[in-house]
Write a structure and sequence with these properties.
The structure holds 2 protein chains of 2 kinds. Chain A is built from 9 helices and 18 strands. Chain A has helices spanning 3-13, 72-85, 119-132, 194-207, 225-237, 241-245, 322-328, 350-355, 408-414; strands spanning 18-34, 37-55, 58-65, 135-152, 157-173, 179-186, 211-212, 217-223, 270-273, 307-311, 314-315, 339-342, 359-373, 378-391, 394-399, 401-406, 417-424, 436-452. By secondary structure, chain A is α+β, with helices and mostly antiparallel strands. In chain B, a hairpin with a 2-residue loop joins strand 10 and strand 11. Chain B folds into 2 domains: 6-236, PmbA/TldD superfamily (PmbA/TldD fold), CATH 3.30.2290; 243-494, no CATH class. The model of chain B has no long low-confidence stretch (mean pLDDT 97). Chain B has helices at 6-9, 13-26, 82-99, 133-147, 220-236, 251-263, 268-271, 341-346, 383-388, 439-444, 491-494; strands at 31-47, 50-68, 71-77, 118-121, 153-169, 174-192, 195-200, 243-249, 301-304, 325-330, 333-334, 356-357, 366-367, 371-374, 392-404, 410-422, 425-430, 433-438, 446-449, 456-465, 470-478, 481-490. The chains are: A alpha+beta, B alpha+beta. At the A-B interface, strand 1, strand 2, strand 3, helix 2 and helix 3 of A face strand 1, strand 2, strand 3, helix 3 and helix 4 of B.
C-alpha cells in the first residue's frame, strides 16, 4: 500500500466529523567514526501513520508504525473513538480547506548507504592523512529523507520531501589535549569536501599549540555563526506566544501581554524564517502530529511564508497557532523549520572580524546549553573545541574553556557588530535543527562565568 | 507478576529471527543479532485543567546487526516478513562492506553465556495502556483544579511507555522482555507583582504502572496540597547572596548531579574517546581505574540493571548480556565502568556488565547508563540531622536546570526549592540560586550521606547520547547528603542585572 493510498483509505474509513491523516515515510543512512576509524553505521526505514480524528471540538490522535492494510481500520477506529471520548479542545478551529501541491502522486525514493559512495572513500583518505600528521578524526555523517503526506476530509492533499544531511568533523591531537570542530549541513553529500574541512581543523590545531590560560570574566568575544545559531535557535524555541502572554518568558511584557513591537537591538538585526530560502528549503505548510502550546493539529496544511520574528532590531512575531493568535491579537505565524539572521548591509567575514580585533576571544562553538531563568532567558553552557585569543588582528594561541551565563535576548542589545551571514550547522542543536543561515557577531563583554578544565 | 502481552508474542518473532540469522550465517558473518521491538508511548498534556494535547504512538520494527570481516553492519526494517528480515541481513552485510575501508579496529565481543528462550517483565501492577484516556485526563484535571485559585496556572503531563523487545543471536540467546514506565508531573505558576515563578512536583519517573498515580510509591495528593503555599513563599523569598555555602542536597536534586557527573563520566566508551565528537569524553580516563580519588570516603556508587522499579532495569541487555549490579566508586575511589561487550573485551574486563541499549528498532545498541546510585550509610543520619550540622548553608530540593562540560568536570545546577540554613535550622526559602563546581571537588567535599530512610530513586526518561541521537530511561538512587563549601551563584547577577 503506497502512502497516498494509505491516506485515502484512512480518510474513507473515518466516521468522525473530520479527519486528518499524516503519513511519514523515512529513510536514513549514517556513518560514525572515532580515532580515525569507523565505530557504528547503519541504514533504517520507517513508516508512521498518524490519524487525527475530530468529533465536535474533541480530538483523538493515534499514531502507529509500519501499519499493514489489515490494521488500518483499527487505527482509524481508535482515533475516532478517542475523539468522541475527548473533552472539547481549546484550539479547535475549522480545518484548513483543501489545497494541494504538485507531486502528490510521485513515488517515495529512499536514501541508502550509497549516498556515501564518494564521501566514504574521501573520509578514509582524510583518516590516513590525519594519522600521518598526528591528528585523530571523530565525527558523524548522516543522511535522512522524509516524505510527509498530509490529507484531510476537507480536501488537503499536501506532500513535502525533506532531505537532511549533516557532517560533524572533530580533530584532536593524539594526546587529546587539543581539539577543533567544524560541521556542515548538506542536502545530498555531493557538496561536502571532507579534505578541505580537515585542512581547516589542522590549521586550528596549529593555533592551539600555544596555550594561554585566562581567568573567568567578561571578554570581548567573536561568536562564529554556529554559536550564534545555537543561541538563536534557543531564542526561537522559547518564542511561543501563549507562554509569553501568560507571563512565563522573556517575551512577556511586565504587567501583561507580550513584548511584540519592542526594540531588542540597537542594530538593524533581522531574524526570520522562509521555507523557500535557497539551500535550506523546508516544508511550506504546517505539519502538526499533536497539539501543544506552540502548534495545533487543526492548523495542519496552513501555508507558511517568509516570517519576521525580529526585524530592524524589533520583536515582530511570536510562534503562534490560530488559537493563540486570537488570544493574543497577533498574527497567526506558526513555527517554520529554518532560521536566518542578518545584520546591516556590508557585514564582514569572520576573517575580517578577526583582523579588526585588538584583543578578544574567538570561539569555535557552544555546548550543553540549558536555560537557567526563563524570564530573562539566561542560558548557561560551555565553550568547546577551541577558544582562541586574538591580539592585534591575529590568533595568537588557544585559551582554556569557560562556562558562560548569558541571555541571547540580552546579547542582541549588546552586540556591536554583525558579520556576513552564511549557512552553518548548529553544533548543539543539529539533532533537531540543521537549516540555519547565521552571521558571526561581536559581543564586547561576554560573561565567562567560570573556567572549565575540559579540553 | 505480569506476563508479556499475547499480541506481541503473536508477532512472527522467531520466524523473522531465523530468517535473518540464517541469511547472515550464509553470508559468512562472525556474529549476528536480530532484535524486534515495539515501543508504545502515550503523552498527554493539560493546561489549567484542560487537555492541551495528547498522542498515542508506537514504533515497531526489527534490526539486524552483524560483524562481517571484523566490521559492524546494521540495517533495520519495518515489514514483518521472513523475506524482509533476510533482506535486512543482506543489507547489514552490505553496510559492513561499504564501511570496511574506514574501519581500522577489528570488532570482537566479550563472551557471554547463551540464554535460551528466557523472558522478563518489569515490576508493575496496572498497564497504563489499559486505563482509558478519559480517566487519566480526569485525574490530572482534578489535581490541576485543586491548585487553581491558589496559583495562576497549572500545567500537567503524563508520559507512559511500554517497551517490548525480542532478541536472538547466532550464539543461541533468545530473550523476550516487556517493561513499563510512567512519569506524571505538575507545575504550578504564579505571579506576584513583577515576579513570576513556578514549582514542579518532585515525584520522579518510575518503572511502575498506573498504580503510581493512585497511591503506590508516591502520595500525589499530599505533594500537590503543599505546592501552592511553597510557591507563594518562593515568590516572596529573598535573592541569594553569591558565595560559598555548605549544602544539604535532597535526592530529588542529587540524582541529576549523580547522573551528569558520575553516570556519564564512568561510561567506558566515553572514557576511551568513542563519544569524543558529540557527548564528549571523561576526566575519569581508563588509566585512573583503581586510583582516581573521585570523592570522599563516604562515597560509594553502584551501577545496577536489576533494581526493582529502576528505569534502566532489564533482564538482559541489547547484546544478550544478563542484568547485573556492580561497583563504580568504592570508598571514594574509581573501581569500575559501565560496559558493553566490545569495550569489555577490548579493555580486559572479561565480561560485559550489561549496559548495551538501543532506544528503537532503527538504532544500533550503544553503551548506555545503568541505574547509577549513591549508597546510603547504614545507620546514617536523617535529613534533619544533616541540616543540624550546618551553620550557614542551603538545603536543595528538586531538579531544574543542568549543564556540564564535555569531560564532566565543570557543572552548574539549579533546583525547585532552596532553603537557607542558619545554625542548623531551615530559615525560609531563597531565590535565584545555582550551584557550580568541579566534579571531584564537589564529591570530595561530601562529608556525610544520609541513612536508608532518606533514600529516594530519582531519574529521567530522556537521557540523550550517541549519533544518531538516542534517548534512554535511567534511575538514580541517592540519600540526602552534606557537602561543604560549594560555590553558589546568584542567577540574576549572572545575567548582568
Amino acid at each position: 500500500m503506497t502512502p497516498q493510498e494509505t491516506v485515502e483509505r484512512a480518510l474513507a474509513l473515518s466516521e468522525a466529523d473530520d479527519c486528518i491523516v499524516i503519513v511519514d515515510e523515512g529513510s536514513t543512512a549514517n556513518l560514525r567514526f572515532a580515532g580515525n576509524t569507523l565505530t557504528t553505521n547503519g541504514v533504517a526505514r520507517s513508516s508512521q501513520l498518524t490519524v487525527i480524528s475530530v468529533a465536535g471540538q474533541g480530538v483523538g490522535v493515534v499514531s502507529r508504525a509500519a501499519v499493514r492494510p489489515d490494521q488500518l481500520a483499527g487505527v482509524v477506529a481508535a482515533a475516532d473513538a478517542a475523539a468522541r471520548d475527548a473533552r472539547p479542545s481549546d484550539d479547535a478551529r475549522p480545518l484548513i480547506e483543501g489545497t494541494s501541491l504538485d507531486g502528490w502522486d510521485r513515488e517515495v525514493e529512499p536514501t541508502s548507504i550509497e549516498v556515501f559512495r564518494d564521501f566514504a572513500p574521501a573520509l578514509g583518505e582524510s583518516f590516513a592523512a590525519a594519522e600521518a600528521s598526528g591528528r585523530r578524526l571523530y565525527g558523524f555523517a548522516e543522511h535522512i529523507l522524509t516524505s510527509t503526506f498530509v490529507g484531510s476530509s476537507t480536501g488537503l492533499r499536501l506532500r513535502h520531501d525533506q532531505p537532511t544531511g549533516r557532517l560533524e568533523l572533530n580533530a584532536k591531537s593524539t594526546d587529546m589535549s587539543r581539539s577543533a570542530w567544524t560541521g556542515v549541513a548538506t542536502r545530498d553529500f555531493t557538496d561536502v569536501d571532507v579534505a578541505a574541512l580537515d585542512a581547516t581543523l589542522a590549521q586550528r590545531l596549529e593555533w592551539s599549540k600555544r596555550r594561554v590560560d585566562l581567568e573567568a570574566g567578561r571578554y570581548e568575544t567573536i561568536l562564529p555563526p554556529t554559536a550564534v545559531a545555537d543561541l538563536m535557535i534557543y531564542l526561537y524555541w522559547t518564542a511561543g506566544a501563549r507562554d509569553a502572554a501568560d507571563g512565563r518568558t522573556v517575551f512577556s511584557k511586565t504587567g501583561g501581554g507580550t513584548r511584540v513591537g519592542e526594540r531588542l537591538s540597537p542594530l538593524p538585526v533581522r531574524l526570520y524564517s522562509d521555507p523557500a530560502y535557497p539551500g535550506i528549503e523546508c516544508s511550506p505548510f504546517q505539519i502538526a502530529h499533536a497539539s501543544s502550546r506552540e502548534q495545533s493539529v487543526f492548523d495542519n496544511g496552513m501555508r507558511l511564508g517568509a516570517t519576521d520574528w525580529i526585524a530592524d532590531g524589533t520583536l515582530r512575531n511570536l510562534l503562534q497557532t490560530r488559537h493563540s493568535a486570537e488570544l493574543t491579537g497577533l498574527a497567526a505565524t506558526p513555527q517554520i523549520d529554518n532560521l536566518i539572521m542578518t545584520g546591516p548591509d556590508g557585514g564582514r567575514s569572520l576573517e575580517e572580524m578577526i583582523a579588526s580585533t585588538e584583543r578578544g576571544l574567538l570561539l569555535t562553538c557552544l555546548w550543553y546549553i540549558r536555560e537557567v531563568d526563563p524570564q530573562t532567558l539566561l542560558l548557561t553552557g560551555l565553550t568547546r573545541d577551541g577558544v582562541y585569543l586574538v591580539e592585534k588582528g591575529e590568533v595568537v594561541g588557544e585559551v582554556n574553556n569557560f562556562r558562560f551565563n548569558e541571555s541571547p535576548v540580552d546579547l542582541l542589545g549588546r552586540v556591536t557588530e554583525v558579520g556576513a551571514s552564511a549557512q552553518t550547522l548548529p553544533r548543539e542543536w543539529n539533532d533537531y535543527f540543521t537549516r540555519t543561515v547565521m552571521p558571526a557577531v561581536r559581543v564586547p563583554d561576554f560573561n565567562m562565568s567560570t573556567v572549565s578544565q575540559a579540553n | 507478576m505480569r506476563q508479556i502481552d499475547p499480541d506481541f508474542l503473536a508477532l512472527p518473532l522467531r520466524r523473522l529471527a531465523d530468517a535473518a540469522l540464517q541469511r547472515a550465517r550464509d553470508l559468512g558473518v562472525e556474529h549476528a543479532a536480530f532484535r524486534l521491538e515495539r515501543v508504545r508511548a502515550e503523552t498527554l498534556r493539560l493546561f489549567d485543567a484542560n487537555l492541551e494535547g495528547s498522542i498515542d504512538a508506537d514504533d515497531l520494527g526489527f534490526a539486524v546487526r552483524v560483524i562481517k570481516d571484523g566490521t559492524w553492519g546494521f540495517a533495520s526494517g519495518i515489514e514483518l516478513t521472513p523475506e524482509a528480515a533476510a533482506r535486512a541481513a543482506e543489507e547489514a552485510v552490505r553496510v559492513a562492506a561499504v564501511s570496511a575501508p574506514i574501519n581500522r579496529e577489528p570488532i570482537e565481543l566479550s563472551p557471554e553465556p547463551a540464554y535460551s528462550d528466557v523472558t522478563w517483565v518489569s515490576a508493575y501492577d496496572v498497564d497504563p495502556f489499559d486505563v482509558p484516556l478519559r480517566d487519566k485526563v480526569a485525574l490530572l484535571s482534578e489535581w490541576s483544579s485543586g491548585m487553581l485559585g491558589a496559583v495562576d496556572h497549572v500545567s500537567a503531563s503524563l508520559m507512559q511507555v511500554k517497551e517490548q523487545k525480542f532478541y536472538a543471536d547466532t550464539a543461541g540467546t533468545v530473550t523476550t522482555q516487556q517493561r513499563v514506565r510512567v512519569h506524571p508531573a505538575l507545575t504550578a505558576m504564579k505571579t506576584d507583582g513583577d515576579r513570576f515563578d513556578d514549582m514542579r512536583t518532585l515525584a520522579p519517573p518510575v518503572g511502575r504502572g498506573y498504580e503510581y498515580l493512585t497511591g503506590t510509591g508516591w502520595d500525589f495528593p499530599a505533594e500537590l496540597a503543599e505546592l501552592p503555599d511553597l510557591l507563594a513563599e518562593k515568590l516572596k523569598a529573598p535573592s541569594v547572596d553569591a558565595g560559598a555555602y555548605d549544602l544539604v542536597v535532597h535526592p530529588s536534586n542529587l540524582w541529576l548531579t549523580i547522573h551528569e557527573s558520575i553516570g556519564h563520566a564512568t561510561e567506558l566508551d566515553r572514557a576511551l574517546g568513542y563519544e569524543a565528537a558529540y557527548a564528549g569524553t571523561s576526566f575519569a580516563t581508563f588509566d585512573k581505574l583503581g586510583s582516581l580519588h573521585y570523592g570522599s570516603p563516604v562515597m560509594n556508587i553502584t551501577g545496577d540493571r536489576t533494581q526493582e522499579h529502576g528505569l534502566a532495569t532489564v533482564g538482559w541487555d541489547d547484546e544478550g548480556v544478563a542484568g547485573q549490579s556492580f561497583d563504580i566508586v568504592k570508598d571514594g575511589t574509581l573501581v569500575g565502568y559501565q560496559l558493553d561487550r566490545r569495550m569489555a573485551l577490548m579493555k580486559g574486563f572479561g565480561r560485559s556488565n550489561g549496559c548495551a541499549f538501543a532506544d528503537s528498532p532503527g538504532h544500533v545498541p550503544i553503551q548506555r547508563m545503568a541505574n547509577v546510585s549513591l549508597r546510603p550509610a547504614e545507620d546514617g543520619p536523617s535529613t534533619d540531622e544533616l541540616i543540624s550540622r550546618v551553620e550557614r548553608g542551603i538545603y536543595v530540593l528538586g531538579d531544574k536546570s543542568w549543564s556540564i562540560d564535555m569531560q564532566r568536570y565543570n557543572f552548574q545546577f539549579t533546583g525547585q526549592r532552596f532553603y537557607k540554613i542558619e545554625n542548623g535550622r531551615l530559615a525560609g526559602q531563597l531565590r535565584d540560586v545555582a550551584y557550580q563546581a568541579t566534579t571531584t571537588d564537589f564529591w570530595r567535599s561530601m562529608e556525610a550521606v544520609g541513612g536508608p530512610g532518606t533514600y529516594v530513586l530519582g531519574g529521567a526518561f530522556n537521557c540523550g547520547k550517541g549519533q544518531p541521537g538516542q534517548v534512554a530511561p535511567v534511575s538514580h538512587g541517592a540519600p540526602s547528603a552534606l557537602f561543604r563549601g560549594v560555590r553558589i551563584l546568584n542567577t540574576v547577577q549572572e545575567g548582568g542585572k
